Amino acid sequence: xxxxxxxxxxxxxxxxxxxxxxxxxxxxxxxxxxxxxxxxxxxxxxxxxxxxxxxxxxxxxxxxxxxxxxxxxxxxxxxxxxxxxxxxxxxxxxxxxxxxxxxxxxxx
Length: 108
Hints:
Number of domains: 1
Radius of gyration: 17 Å
Number of strands: 5
């Protein structure tokens, strides 16, 4: 086979981009502000067992953006909302302290 005929890896397995071309923001940047969760997709985590979510959201009157989360509580809440067909939904993300220095994220 001639070198030029050998396919590129990127042609064989194009990268799956969820919601391409949207700005990605850190979850702490949107804490305590009402947002509209428009959609999400799940991907396997590279850092721990389980998965993480790529969440498409917007603030009222703004363009859609993304945040990433591996928060088990947020993942359960997102999956539940999809199960009962309640996406999109409005929510505020809270960072809740627990014993010690630990914290978790939740939608309220």
